[in-house]
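Appendix B, example 12.
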Amino acid sequence: MKHKIAMVGFGGMAGWHYEEIQTIEDLEIAGIWDIREERRACAAEKGLHVYEGLDDLLADPSTDLVLIATPNDVHRPVAIEAMKSGKNVISEKPATLSSEDLQEMICVSEETGRFLTVHQNRRWDEDYLTVKKILEEGKLGELFRVESRVHGSRGIPGDWRQEREHGGGMILDWGVHLLDQLLLLFEDVSLRSVYATVTHVTNQLVDDGFCAELTFENGVIALVEVGTSNFVSLPRWYVLGTDGTAVIEDWSLNGRIVRASGVDEKDVTPVITAAGLTKTMAPRRDDSIFTEELPVVKSDVREFYYNVMAVLEGREESLIRLPQVMRVMKLMEAIERSAETGAVVRFEY
């Protein structure tokens, strides 16, 4: 069964979708609409049909899918109009700017019977899937801390991401990915509290970074951090359990797992520091630990579209469920609230 998708917005992310869709059988781009003349010209140069406007796009009877790849504040109104026009909708992340707006979109989806999903593409990141496998296999013993970070050093890109009214800032831009991944690692565990701070190093209008500490019901503490003024990046993942530690340095999956071998260290040799001896911080003996390679998990991000088509054909359930999207949205709001008040925020969702 052939599916046709129309794109609203043809910027950088839509260009990524364009390239992916070229490799997907049974999915075809019907055309695009973008308010910017230069992006319409770019699409035409690629041989794509350019609609005369949004109304023209939504009136096309040949399409069953609409991809919304616009600034964040435009997602909600376009999604609602598209679903009311009989179209199924893929929204770029974040779905919208607030849980209230998201609930409105969900209600319209239910009222119209149209499929609504969000392109949470970083569920297919291999670093995340590798961490997920490490936890599932219990390699580190009882888990007690997870740290997830992305660091850059160029500030926020010079576009709408710098403007609050368009949904700019790093909580909505990168937080939505890292928090989605983290909540999936603990999908069946309640999150008890959130404490967060934000930075305004290069931008005073929106956050250009944030750090959030999340405490789960099972006692695990998770640290989620996004920074855009970090000239030395910390590891992408740092995961600690009672029997070992895993580190993933970057998206290239450089890293390792170090685990206890089971040998009891009864006599610890002190290590000499600048101002004295310490046994507490002395390194373990080589015979009491061992290092192993990461159990790297490979993925194909096109599975997102394969799943969307299967949902439309009634063969599968959506991999990205709207209650999951809502949980992330409410968590982002809790992070903003904690940063504004300087207080720990209770989170019962």
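The chain has a mean pLDDT of 95. The radius of gyration is 23 Å.
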